[in-house]
Design a protein that fits this description.
By secondary structure, the protein is mainly alpha-helical. The chain is built from 21 helices and eight strands. A two-stranded antiparallel sheet has the order 1-3. The protein has a two-stranded antiparallel ribbon with strand order 2-6. Strand 7 and strand 8 form a beta hairpin.
Length: about 500
């Protein structure tokens, strides 16, 4: 896992973006008046891209649960026995990230510091961008755990929203949990309000995006992601959001929200760190995902192999195909596979771009909202393949042969396109049941049955349990939150949008 030295050096690397900015507000270089807002913003966004997508939270967690990757040696997490430290990271890192974004807002509102922050974008625009990124971070928490402590810029005086208050004049060390559906509704309001208040012609930060016009597209595209999650549980709200945000959302791959890491071992991304720096070989593609991409299973069996299979993974030199590991069948089955594939070279490159939200996903969302529209379905496939580097003639041939748009085909293609965003793919499975090609508890492979290591869990998990520290240090609020879950604080209680 990343150490503090690496984090410090990465922050310095990211700050090179603003090397040309004036720093005359620092009268004494050894005693700066305040930390620059861009440093806090870059640090938070780096943490968001790294900590929620690293070898622990993603490799052993969400990318595994979504069955993109399987453990090649250590399979306990593939049987859903998540380590307490993983669960801690899923909870604690988002709140640390949110605290940094909140601090940027404070620096841009405080009369003593706001003028010092203006080299990185207007005070107002920095605030609106942070509201967008806070919405992105909070929804990740909700989709992982359910009810969580919450804070909202637009409702910061709401006494029920008690998160992020430890540095306040009257801190609340044990914040109450807020209803997940209430949080979702406020996130939609926050994103819309921020998109309206940011200056369309301005420029802010330069991390993920520089132009405010791109930040506006991001806010509306994120609203579409949240809206489609609500489609079955609150269709009126979901459709209203779609009508508001469809047109200004992403329109091409040039709009994609990506975080690009550095170009060396110090500043490179988490997968370069895991596979190259630390020489780990713990992860491989799952057999279910490889079979889906080779169209040996699923709704595209009459089509040629998906060209993304060898853009997502590298095969061993002695293998004619990418080889996957059966997911969920234990250590003996996993270790018996000796020629398994590995993540593709460009994913392991130091300057990998972690996708936060893509045009391809937005097109699949549009297809779902418009009764499985064929044009948006094809646009989503093409955009995904273009993004991952498939040649145009290969893309055209594949799309011409693909099964027509339907609930199953659109959502299965969306799953394929969400590769490297394990949490979102897992959310889509929980919400829709697609793809229906995943290994599930009770399945058998080579005489072995998929049995989880979690008592009472006989399905793919529907949430992550709360961290142990919440039980120890925030007991009364944890008790209240778990009492509202249909099966208590277990991995088989459902988050509110999961109504299947």
């Amino acid at each position: 896992m990343r150490n503090n030295i690496k984090k410090f050096l990465m922050t310095l690397g990211l700050m090179a973006i603003v090397a040309s900015c004036d720093t005359d507000y620092i009268e004494d270089p050894d005693n700066p008046v305040s930390v620059p807002s861009i440093q806090l913003f870059n640090n938070a966004t780096y943490d968001l891209a790294w900590e929620l997508n690293d070898e622990w939270v993603a490799g052993r967690g969400t990318l595994g649960i979504a069955q993109y990757w399987a453990g090649a040696f250590y399979v306990e997490e593939n049987l859903y026995a998540l380590r307490p430290s993983m669960i801690d990271d899923m909870w604690e890192w988002p709140y640390r990230i949110l605290t940094d974004y909140q601090k940027v807002i404070e620096l841009n509102e405080n009369p003593e510091t706001k003028a010092l922050m203006e080299p990185y974008g207007s005070n107002n625009d920095q605030i609106q961008v942070c509201r967008m990124m806070m919405a992105y971070t909070f929804y990740k928490l909700v989709d992982t755990f359910g009810d969580v402590p919450y804070w909202s810029y637009g409702q910061r005086d709401n006494p029920d929203f008690q998160a992020l208050s430890l540095l306040d004049e009257n801190p609340i060390p044990n914040p109450a949990y807020n209803d997940a559906s209430v949080i979702y509704q406020d996130l939609l309001v926050e994103l819309l309000d921020a998109s309206k208040k940011i200056s369309p012609s301005g420029s802010t930060f330069g991390t993920v995006y520089s132009a405010n016009s791109d930040w506006i597209k991001f806010a509306h595209s994120l609203r579409l992601r949240l809206a489609v999650h609500l489609l079955d549980v609150n269709p009126t709200l979901a459709n209203n959001v779609f009508m508001e945000s469809n047109e200004p959302a992403f329109g091409s791959n040039t709009d994609n929200a990506l975080f690009t890491f550095g170009t060396d071992d110090i500043t490179g991304g988490p997968w370069h760190n895991a596979f190259t720096v630390n020489a780990r070989r713990d992860f491989a593609p799952t057999l279910s995902f490889v079979d889906l991409l080779y169209n040996r299973t699923g709704p595209f069996m009459n089509s040629d192999a998906d060209p993304r299979v060898e853009l997502y993974f590298d095969k061993r030199l002695e293998s004619e195909e990418v080889v996957g590991i059966p997911y969920g069948f234990g250590q003996d089955i996993a270790r018996a596979v000796v020629d398994e594939g590995i993540p593709a070279e460009h994913i392991l490159a130091p300057d990998f771009s972690q996708p936060l939200l893509t045009y391809s996903e937005v097109e699949f969302i549009r297809s779902e909202f418009t009764d499985w529209n064929q044009m948006h379905y094809e646009n989503g496939i093409k955009a995904s393949m273009e993004y991952w580097g498939a040649p145009s003639d290969v893309i055209d041939n594949y799309v011409e042969s693909i099964a027509v748009a339907s609930e199953e085909t659109v959502l299965t293609q969306k799953y394929i396109a969400l590769y490297m965003d394990g949490l979102e793919a897992w959310t889509e499975y929980r919400r829709t049941g697609y793809p229906n090609t995943l290994s599930v508890p009770g399945d058998t492979y080579d005489g072995t049955t998929f049995v989880t290591n979690v008592p009472g869990l006989d399905i793919i998990p529907t949430r992550v349990i709360y961290p142990q520290n919440e039980q120890l240090l925030n007991r009364s609020n944890w008790d209240s939150a778990r009492s509202k879950l249909n099966n208590g604080d277990t991995m088989f209680s459902k988050i509110f949008w999961d109504v299947d």
